[in-house]
Design goal:
- By secondary structure, this protein is mainly alpha-helical.
- The protein has one domain: Four Helix Bundle (Hemerythrin (Met), subunit A), CATH 1.20.120.
- The protein has six helices and no strands.
- Helix 1 packs antiparallel against helix 2, helix 3 packs parallel to helix 5 and helix 5 packs antiparallel against helix 6.
- The longest helix has 42 residues.
- It starts with a helix and ends with a helix.
- The model has no long low-confidence stretch (mean pLDDT 82).
Length: 197
């Protein structure tokens, strides 16, 4: 829970550094490297937080809700910001269709969760394998984009090849993840309806 709060507190700092770096118009600017370091720290604390909660048996309802919220805020804010041409150059910025699919996936899952909670009075939030893969790929996308911005050409061109692959893979995984969560939510809804009869 403490690491989740740390991620939420570091998010505005990360976004401020990205905007500061974009304003500098200088590949390799110190703010860009600091933003990359903070984002990497936030991504690592996400994995560490989940591991420690399971290992120490210290899960809480609030933590179960806040952890995915912190993940979604981190990725959604990052991909939206890194899709602007004044933040990342045309070669590296995240294409708008990728951003829209990521964001819509989050929106559908969030609204579905709220609807399920309203209709049944409870919801079981369990991380799914596709959801974990989706999150990891999106974190890698942001880190690779930040690396390209910080390295500039030609070193950034090597990382750009990874970016192009991610631009094609991530929307497919995001759609599959969304469908998987909708299916799980439908199962929970049907179980709750049967139990209430």
């Amino acid at each position: 829970m403490g690491l989740t709060m740390l991620r939420l507190l570091l998010l505005p700092v990360f976004l401020w550094l990205i905007l500061t770096d974009a304003h500098a118009h200088d590949p390799g600017h110190r703010a860009g490297w600091l933003a990359l370091a903070i984002f990497t720290l936030m991504a690592l604390t996400d994995k560490l937080d989940g591991y420690l909660a399971r290992r120490l048996h210290q899960t809480s309802k609030l933590g179960t809700i806040l952890d995915p919220v912190a993940d979604k805020l981190l990725v959604a804010c990052s991909v939206i910001l890194l899709s602007f041409d004044w933040v990342a150059s045309d070669s590296y910025r995240i294409p708008l269709p990728v951003v829209v699919i990521i964001y819509l996936g989050y929106l559908i899952v969030t609204l579905g969760t709220l609807l399920l909670l309203t209709l049944t009075g409870g919801v079981s939030i369990v991380a799914r394998p596709l959801g974990k893969l989706n999150t990891v790929l999106q974190l890698v996308l942001v880190i690779a984009t930040l690396l390209c911005i910080d390295l500039g050409a030609p070193a950034g061109d090597l990382v750009r090849r990874l970016l192009v692959v991610l631009w094609y893979i991530i929307p497919i995984v995001a759609i599959a993840t969304c469908a998987d969560y909708v299916l799980q939510g439908t199962k929970q809804f049907r179980s709750a309806r049967r139990a209430s009869r």
